[in-house]
Amino acid sequence: MKRTLQGRYETISTVGEKARAFIPYDLPPSPAIVWTPALRERFDSALLALGRLDSVSALLPNVTLFLYTYVRKEAVLSSMIEGTQSSLSDLLLFELDELPGVPVDDVREVSNYVAAMDHGLRRLREGFPLSLRLLREIHAILLAQGRGNGKNPGELRASQNWIGGTRPGNAVYVPPPPQNVAPCMNALELFLHDQPEPTPLLLKAALAHVQFETIHPFLDGNGRLGRLLIALLLCERQALRQPLLYLSLFFKTHRQTYYELLNRVRLEGDWEAWLDFFAEAVTVTAGQAVDAARRLDGMAQEDRGRIQALGRAAGSALRLHHELLAHPIATSQHLAGKTGLTPMTVNKSLAHLSKLGIVRELTGQKRNRVFSYPAYIAILNEGTEPLGNG
User: Fold this and answer.
1) C-alpha span between 226 and 208 (Å, rounded)
2) Which H/E stretch holds residue 19?
3) For residue 85, is pLDDT > 90?
4) Beta-carbon neighbour count of residue 235 at 10 Å?
5) In 3-state terms, what secondary structure has residue 286?
């Protein structure tokens, strides 16, 4: 449905030229969302997909092992949208302090995302509300080191920013002036807390994401934090017991449509087109997560069966295999520390796992060797190919 402009323009003067900055109206949209039968069906499918995903997380025997690497996949994807070239393997090596050929700035940015996500989820579990204060805390960690650390981490911007173009005059979009950022964010916080009226959770997540990206309240990191906001909302309201829904892969795959729909909301008020896209994103992404979880669990069970056939050597090898499910790239020293096995036993077990084709040594060296669980990583790597130019 086409409405009118979903905000107002204000002429600003910045970096020596004039530009028109957009100040959005507060949520919820007015007039209200038009729920056609097709759009309701989309949202019903999305809610069913969320329920299936939550059920799978409850049924997986080792959901925390899956979660460790799945969260890191999201960090890679979300940062990749912003231009980093770091891979999941890069991040896992970085966390081991093993950095052969790894782009350090890129991987540090991804590592910051993991830390920021962990902080936000931990605060929510402690009962802290999803609020502007919490978003600022998360942002401070997101930009704590590496690129962006000079752009006021944790502080709402006090200067003008813009999206696309080399300057405000030729920008694709100019967000609200600095003096309007705090009032806009305060209104968004009220909306998150069901003021002025209650809003169903999935609809709230869809609307809040657009509003956050429209306000663009920080000098850097807005895209990553805006995508993370969706997962935080679903976890705060316990729609998901574990943070397993991340839309970065869908947004990355359909990034041109994503940006076009955000602009259509601002310029034409076509919230329904955005909601249709968002519901599809949830449905597809939840299905992919369910599929990945089941495939990884099935592969792990199959590999455990092969390891058990080793006989006397199986006990130690199974302990290593369990640790590799959580950390699919690891050094023998790391594995010894985590399992409590002696270095000699670890090396013998790794030799057994290598013969079975379950692990592969990455360095080709005699010392400081690094081992991977390639089949596990291959499943998680699906969709994390570098962005093309199209």
Assistant:
1) 9
2) strand 17-24
3) no
4) 20
5) helix
d(CA 21, CA 5): 13
CB 333 within 8 A of CB 326: no
Asked whether the beta carbons of 37 and 209 are under 8 A apart, the reply is no
What pLDDT, in 10s, does the model give residues 177-236? 999 999 999 999 999 999 999 999 999 999 999 999 999 999 999 999 999 999 999 999
Architecture of the CATH domain 309-379 = Orthogonal Bundle (1.10)
Tens of pLDDT, residues 344-389: 999 999 999 999 999 999 888 777 789 999 999 998 888 776 654 3
Q: Where are the domains of the chain?
A: 7-65+101-287, 309-379
Instruction: Specify the pLDDT at position 92.
Output: 80
pLDDT of amino acid 234: 94
CA-based nearest residue to 29, from 3, 54, 47:
3
CA dist 47 and 239 (Å) reads: 9
Same fold, 7-65+101-287 and 309-379: no
Closest alpha carbon to 27 in 2, 6, 5, 3: 6
State the Cα torsion 87-89-95-97 to the nearest 10°: -110
Contact 191, 211 (CB under 8 A): yes
CB atoms within 10 A of CB 136: 17
CATH classification code of 7-65+101-287 = 1.10.3290.10
Residue 63 tokens, joined: 């959901």
| Residue 103 burial by Cβ neighbours in a 10 Å radius (0-12, 13-18, 19+) | middle
The pLDDT of residue 383: 74
What tokens appear for 357 in the block? Answer: 């084709």
User: pLDDT tens, 139-150?
Assistant: 999 998 766 667
| Per-residue pLDDT at 317 exceeds 80 | yes
Amino acid, res. 204? K
Alpha carbon distance 302, 272 (integer Å): 45
For residue 19, the cross-strand partners are 12
Neighbour tally for 118: CB within 10 Å: 14
For residue 9, what is the enclosing H or E element?
Answer: strand 7-14
The tokens describing 98, both together, are: 């093993």
What is the structure's pLDDT at 390? 33
Q: Which of 30, 13, 29 is nearest to 21 (CA)?
A: 13
Task: Output phi, psi for 163, to 5 deg.
Answer: -120, 130
